[in-house]
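Re: the 102-residue chain
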Amino acid sequence: MPEQAPPCSVQIASDGRIEVRGELTFATVPTLRITALRLFSKVRSVHIDLAGVTGADSAGLALLIEWMRELRRRQHTAHFSHIPDALRVIAELSDVDSLLPA
């Protein structure tokens, strides 16, 4: 039986934040990427809240960097909150932590 991807979601909260929940991993990133890009067109100033993230790997970090690149291309302002420690460590070790505005 094929392995199923862990549950993940990205949605706009009632206060306008974009909430990410679940795992940011190789298994979930493709779905999260597409969903988030649709949501970015609905907001101008983007606050991405990662408090609901339960796990992450380097694919999750790549996704956050891609989101920042896309938001800058659209001339949106953006910041992240509640960046998981695992992602911070990967970003620091990769010397890309400055790409994740908090």
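Residues 58 and 90 are 7 Å apart (CA to CA).
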